[in-house]
Design a protein that fits this description.
Elements (H helix, E strand, L loop, with lengths): L10 H13 L2 H13 L3 H24 L6 H9 L1 H33 L6 H16 L3 H15 L26 H14 L6 H4 L9 H26 L2 H6 L3 H8 L8 H31 L6 H17 L4 H42 L1
Length: 367
Amino acid sequence: MNKYSFNQISLIQYILIIFEAQVGIGVLSLPSDLAKRAGTDGWISIILGWMVSTLLSLVIIRIMKKNPEHTIFELLTTYFGKWVGKGLTVVWIVVVVCGVSTVMFSTIHIMKIWIVQDTRNVILMILFTIPIYIITKHGIRMIGLFAELVLFITLWLPFLLLFALKDIQWMYLFPIGKVGVYPILSAVKSTIYSFLGFELAFILYPFLKDKKSASKGIVIANSLTMIVYLVTTIVCFIRFSQTEVADYVYPMLNLLKVIQLPFIERLEIICLSFYLFMIFMTIIPYLYAATLGISQLLGKQDHRNGLRILLFLWVLSSFFFIPTSSQITQMGQAWGIIGIYSAYVLPIFLWMYGWIFHYFMKKEAKS
């Protein structure tokens, strides 16, 4: 019997966890990154990034189909032996912890700038870690239920973009391809950063109840992410000029700021408060993946001790580490580079190595 059979998630939960992990902070800053690299042709880069990410996602599913009861940690031990496998597991955990820490500190930085300027970082860290701990400690099934709740909480947010479709200039998008092929291709790098999250399939696959639909589910998740990125980016491009979008750090928040409603002010504050739930769904799955890896590395069944240690280190570090905007940007860039290797290079390597591994295993079994 699969040891994960008592903590399974449905296909919808599987899709939502990946989708919400991908969207997170990326949707806030992606239009600016694309405008700097490819101008208003950046939306084409989103489609290309979706194609690359979906292809790599399917590679991950092919790997996991051969090892349906293993997470990435058990897979590494199976393929490379006990000690090398554990060494690679440590590397993977460190990468994930660095990534989720970047998202956490970025979230606090955004909240400080837009909502609670006078609140100390450590206070925000404590307030954020409490709900994150409550959800993450219960495991992947609770995370799946929370992903469904987040969908209902934030489902109304995209419709606010309709109010931004005033004084728009469709001509900002034309002529299509005006910057040339190279800038569009170079901007794909920014989009594949924003699609990071599909590699969670390395963790989610053993928990998925309907494993036959894993490929379909991950394609749907990537496609939902592409639609969100496309819509938000195009709306920013036709509402602001290219120069304005490139100058804004978080164009989506500036877009909400220009929306005028007769019954409410500072719409971006309310929206960001609700969107915080979506950002939590970027943090929680990665945090669970890291603590699950720590528990399996130490041969423990309970991941909560590792979770408590990581959250305590976050709170402790927030006393003396208050990153500036430039430091947040540097952290994001570093995580993006590392993320490419963990999410894009590693699957290709494991797929090729796994093919050779299973070939020799079958040959040995026949002999």
